[in-house]
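tool=predict chain=A
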Amino acid sequence: QVQLVESGGGLVQAGGSLRLSCAASGRTFSTATMGWFRQAPGKEREFVARIRWSDAITSYASSVQGRFTISRDKAKNTLYLHMNSLEPEDTAVYYCAARQKLVWDSWGQGTQVTVSS
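tool=predict ok
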């Protein structure tokens, strides 16, 4: 298991930026992919972005493509999500996750992002 702790959420105006961080500890050597998900009130959790730990290959949801950037610092075992041009629709609890193969089996506790119009 990998332990994940998110930070960096907060309140921002529409058009603003935030950077989320996710510190990983534990069996980090077994992590193949890390990602970000989000869950808005009354909605299901949805995929935001993922990054392959070894070579930093990334993938994004269409709703955030071009506005959000996922990155990682291997030396610090830390995952980031740089969010620009934020919209009220981006308001959600953002979760960091990790997987070794196909199942996202490690999750953080989440960090709230609120975008005001």
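The chain has a mean pLDDT of 95. The first strand starts at residue 2 and ends at 7.
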